[in-house]
Amino acid sequence: MLRHVRGALYLREGISPQGYHALSLVRLDDAERDLFLERFQLPERAESVEPLDLDITLTETQLEAASIEITQQLRFLDDTAYIGNLATTAADGTIETSMVHVLSDARIVVGDLAAGRVHYRGITPATLRERWDAWRQAQSGRVSTDADNGLNAHPELLTTPVVAGDDAS
């Protein structure tokens, strides 16, 4: 999870399988993008496989009914070796949620959730990188819009020394 802190700094929170939380201050550079991709546990051959020929949008009602036709179109779910969730918040506060399925043959399927529908489509690792880059580009506006937040709103906290034993502290 990445949370904007201030300027170009983000707080990355990672949670281990044992439930331990690791916190790091990071910048949204290429190394952070590589770590983002690493979290999806993509096999090495993922870069060279063709994306799954899949492009289907289903409503919640269709998914609940699970007709034979729909079940046939969702057979990739049986082949999912790893699933990751991706949620991003846009500048206007809207949240975009996706499920990223990594199949046992190294292909990737993303299911984008919106307005009671899920849109499944085959993608490549390049598509995940493009998604990261677009999100990172959208975050660049935060550097200038947060000038009144945090310590910038209280510059005296940056310039007033605190002395141990000082009655004013």
Cα distance, first to last residue?
A: 35 Å
Specify the structural class. alpha+beta
Poorly predicted parts: none
**How confident overall, as mean pLDDT?**
83
Approximate strand percentage: 25-35%
Helix-strand pattern, N to C?
Answer: EEEHEHHEEEEHHH
Quick one: how many beta strands? 8
Backbone CA Rg: 21 Å
Instruction: Tally the helices.
Output: 6
Any idea what the shape is?
globular
Largest sheet: 5 strands, antiparallel
Helix content: 25-40%
Largest sheet: spatial strand order: 4-8-7-6-5
Provide a short characterization of the protein structure.
Helices cover 26% and strands 33% of the residues. It contains 6 helices and 8 strands, in the order E-E-E-H-E-H-H-E-E-E-E-H-H-H.
What are the main properties of this structure?
three-stranded antiparallel beta sheet, 169 residues, alpha+beta, five-stranded antiparallel beta sheet, 6 helices, globular
What this model shows, in words?
- It is built from six helices and eight strands.
- By secondary structure, it is of the alpha+beta class.
- The strands form two sheets. Strands 4-8-7-6-5 form a five-stranded antiparallel β-sheet.
- Strand 7 and strand 8 form a beta hairpin.
- Helix 1 crosses helix 4.
- The two termini are 35 Å apart.
- The mean pLDDT is 83.
Describe the secondary structure blueprint for this structure.
Blueprint: E1 2-6, E2 9-15, E3 21-26, H1 30-38, E4 55-59, H2 60-65, H3 68-73, E5 80-89, E6 95-103, E7 108-114, E8 117-123, H4 125-139, H5 142-145, H6 156-159
Helix pairs in contact: 1-4
